[in-house]
Amino acid sequence: MRFFMSPSFALCSILSFSATQITSSTASSSKGSSTSTGTNPASSSTQPPPDVLLRVPNLSVGRIELDVDNLSAEINLAAEVASLVKINAGVQVGIEKVNLTIVDVQAELDLIVRLEPQVVSIVNRTLATLDLAPGLVGLLNGVTDVAGNVVGNVVGNVGDVVDNVLGDVGGAAGGVVNEAVGSVDGLLGSITQGSKSLNYIIDDSGNIVQVTGVAGKTVTSIVGNYQQNMTYTGQAATLPGGLVEKTYKYSPLGALVNVIFNSLGQVVQTTVVTSKTGTGSKAGSTGGDGVVQRAASGLFGLLGL
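Above: the chain sequence. Below: its structure as tokens.
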């Protein structure tokens, strides 16, 4: 029997029908009655387990007629760790003026999604940092407020802000903030020039990023990389999974950085071993304001700014 439907009604019908088929097929697969054959790509011994797996072992369609004027579809994958890291990956597809007729079709569908190692590394590093310093979650909102005041050069109000966040702008505040900064990877160091603070971090691609405050806003810019601006110390170590860790020195701030490469020589992760904070071109910035500036710089490094 041949039938026709309006575009909106036809679209609802096909989507409802597909959802019913997928639910039914998935249920039958769990009971062992799937009719799928061939090699299972998700269980191959040479591939890691997928991050997302959608399997429709048996999809049968008698007859479908579909008229569409404009159809768009969007698939999103969202991952969030506390309020520190948010990752969104998605696919958007759009088609116009489609007339589709499907008759007596049987199909098998496997959708396998594997995230890039860099995405997994970002989440793993964030979780590892929180495991070492769980207090960062509670201090996140307060330290963010302090960082905004420092970048905006409102130094006169820093004492009151830190007092509201940590309860004591003196030794207790300095100890807590220093402990938080010590747990953050990526901070090469800070340089204070008059009322302007320049913070330098290294991202997971090996780029040296300068973070400054301009008119109360945070501005980031790439000013170099580990290949051009750092010196290889000759220290190297072999890590599991075919990874190699090499140590580089960033002389302007006296920082040592461990750079991890994969088997193709690509940078997959960087970690700052030691760093310094100074005034002008020399190290030695001290006092409550310097502690808060280092806290802000460490937070920028954790968030990948």
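The longest strand covers residues 52-81.
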